[in-house]
Amino acid sequence: MVSLPADDDRRLAAIGGALLVASSFLPWATVEAVGTSTTANGLTGIGYLTPVTGVIVLYVVSTREWTGFDTTLTTAAGALTLGSLALIYTSLEHVFAVGYPSGQLSVSAEPGLPLAMLAALLVTVGGYRGLRRIRGTGSPEVAP
User: What is the pTM of this model?
Assistant: First the structure.
């Protein structure tokens, strides 16, 4: 049986890491051109980084101490993944459809890509909150 970490920050990063892995198997984009269509998931192209990041985050959160290095690694992995996913999302309409007359090529995002972006955000926030707590730069809770 899998158990979530007791620490809120680690739990948030673990949920994000698990969602990164799961979202890789969902469809990310559909391309329709001249009467045919194809769907790609997170296991194609640069999308391979997403499940790898998810596995690394799950390893760090579940087997290592939650030190400054671990929280920094988790924050950086989540932020870099979020940035690459945002680049993919932005590129769907603006890069892949260039050079084709309108109406002949349609590229649309599927649910897996926004879910992966949300998961990367959870990893980033969990790591950053843990980093703030460990370095003593304040409580991650919002003051009234």
Answer: 0.83
